[in-house]
Amino acid sequence: MGLPLLLALIMSTQSTTEVYQITNVGIGSQGLSNYGTVLGEYNFTQYMINSVVMSVIIVVGKVTLSLFAALALVYYRFPYERAVFMFILLTLLLPVPVRIVPLFDLMARLGWGNTLMAITGPYIASATAVFLFRQHFMSIPASLVENAHLDGVGPLTFLWKVLIPMSKGMIAGVSVITFIYAWNQYLWPLIIMTDQSKQVVQVGLRFLQAASQSGLTRWGIIMAGAVIALLPPLAVLIVMHRPLLETLAIQQK
Amino acid sequence: MPEFTKPYESRWQAFLLLLPTFAVLIAFLYYPGVETFRLSLQQTILLGTRKTFVGLENYVTLATSSTYHWSFAISIAFAAVVVVGTLVASLFVAYLLFQVDVGSSTYLIAAIWPYALPTAVAASVLLFLLHPSLGIITFVLESLTGTSLEWFTNGPQAFAVVAVVAIWKQLGYNIIFMVAALNNIPETLTESAKLDGVGHLKMLYRVYVPLMSPTLVFLVVMNTIYSFFQTFPLVDLMTSGGPNEATNLLIFKLYRDAFEFSNLGLASAESVVLFAIVAILMYVQLRLSESYTTYA
């Protein structure tokens, strides 16, 4: 499973000539200079920044919005609670490809082409995150809630002082899942970001392939780009695998 | 339903807390979702400047188009190959992990890391390693089997290569859920089976697989959705739908009809078909998980 990755890592140090010697699987003569070329000459520094900004906005936006929504669903009495929750859950039926043409149209009419609003907006509300936070809030002992209320604590203080500290693991898990999901987006940024300098790193890989259509393909460079585009989500997974696994286990229900 | 009395009563506060989520969902999910249905009944001409109502004409076009039939058929076949391949491979890895039974994070991360693998990265890496003339894996395979990998021109081979990459990327997700399911199986069962001298493989399909069935059903549904919706970067970066339409999956065809040929009405009708597929899968998932909880 990890073998292709190891090979990609080795090939990313090779010059184009070395790559074309098929059986050459040693560390190449380029060392890490391919990485410098990708980050500089091929604009990967810019793409990486764009990807980081996009993913962080999506994570922060999704967690914030979903915490608010879950707070309302669990701790407020209002009419049609069940219907409101179903209305949020039903959006699971609408992944991007199912609404891609009108969504693109809408962004064009709003004049949002090439903006952060366009690549983050469709992702910052989420049925899954609301569902998970709601589940978690409902599992918090009622005595705690009643104590907080007896002290006359307002809802936002209650969220900040009681709920968030008690939901750290769940918030971490949702953040990791969301970050990896956002970082790996390809189709939507490809369509909505027509300005190359605004593009994310996944689509950057497409530019890398297209750039070398003539002559010998610079595979060493492409492998370096692939490794760079993989590192952030992989690092996040390694560091945060515990909350990630716990959250996914709950999601299945 | 919560057993406690809800502490807050203010309706306008609840409304304000729900407002941002609702605004985003309505603007970017429900509204475009409904628009898709409306657009699918229209024909766009002059690059989308004029729209005319054409009723079900786009659906008739899809129903009678041999290209679309082909895309539909290979997408179903692709889903079947990816679902079965992913389940078998990840079950094998998850079971190994369970047998070794180390609490060590290193083994676990080594098994689940493809969860973080971007599809575009998977595509780029294997496009090179399986390259018909340059790939080191191609070289080894050809030396071992004596067949030649010509997947840039050979349709069935291209289909197989894209499926292998799709499976590779999806292993992590599946292993995560399978390991969790295996860890939930009571140890007494394992102990007593061991005493009866049941072999490892027999244990797996006689004892573990039936006990894991709720998880396996969930994964069948999720993997199917994945193979219909998340495989766009693979086709886009590895084959562009070729050779001879062999990898022109529904999601890739939809992209081209919409954004290369500007055929928005037809593309919207294709979106509606995809919507129907998701709806059916979600419904199946819901019904089956309900039936399991009644037994539990």
TrEMBL record, chain B:
Which SUPFAM superfamilies does the UniProt entry name for this protein?
MetI-like
Signal peptide (from-to): none
Q: Which UniProt keywords apply?
A: Cell inner membrane, Cell membrane, Membrane, Transmembrane, Transmembrane helix, Transport
Q: How does it sit in the membrane?
A: Multi-pass membrane protein
Q: Any stretches that span the bilayer, and where are they?
A: 12-31, 72-98, 110-139, 159-182, 203-229, 264-284
Q: State the compartments where it is located.
A: Cell inner membrane; Cell membrane
Q: Which Gene3D superfamilies match?
A: MetI-like (1.10.3720.10)
For the keyword Membrane, the answer is: yes
What GO cellular-component annotations does this UniProt entry give? plasma membrane
State the Gene Ontology BP annotations.
transmembrane transport
Q: Which residues form the ABC transmembrane type-1 domain?
A: 72-285
Q: Which family does it belong to?
A: Belongs to the binding-protein-dependent transport system permease family.
The record's note on quaternary structure and interaction partners says: The complex is composed of two ATP-binding proteins (UgpC), two transmembrane proteins (UgpA and UgpE) and a solute-binding protein (UgpB).
In Swiss-Prot or TrEMBL terms, this protein is called sn-glycerol-3-phosphate transport system permease protein UgpA
Q: What is the lineage of its organism?
A: Archaea, Methanobacteriati, Methanobacteriota, Stenosarchaea group, Halobacteria
